[in-house]
Amino acid sequence: MKQFLLIPIILSTFILGFLVNSAFSYSNSIKELPFNSLFSKNYEKESPSDFIKEEDIQVFPDKIIILVNNAKISSFEDTNSMDPLLDINHNGIEVNADCNKLEKGDIIAYKANWIDAIVIHRIIEINKDNEGIYFTTKGDNSNINDPQKIRCSNIKSKLVGVIY
Fold it and tell me: What ranges do the domains of the chain cover?
């Protein structure tokens, strides 16, 4: 009978140790960390490259100043393609895109040839062919890639921030 009790005690001790370690490991951290459970299926996804550095953000009691050269404010249509990141009442901060510095995970606005609009989607692949570099993009809330090779000449800007 004692052998049957040993397994639940060991398992409970392990789980309790994991939870206590998680609580104490992050309690003194100034960074916010999401909790990834042992039982979840969270896979790393490509995030946008770091553009606005911490030293370019000034916080005052009555305002916040973000120092970004040649920035413009953008708004978004209610297409749901980039939910939950972007939606109709959100404001974006965009800058001119340097094609040579774009990375997987960056979010770009480009002139689409498959719809009469500017599309803002995430870069999921960067490739080259006989015409040069091109980007494959996809909306975060979509299961299919955009049907166009995005060339540097199509790109209007890069999203560097979202204000909710």
Answer: 70-163
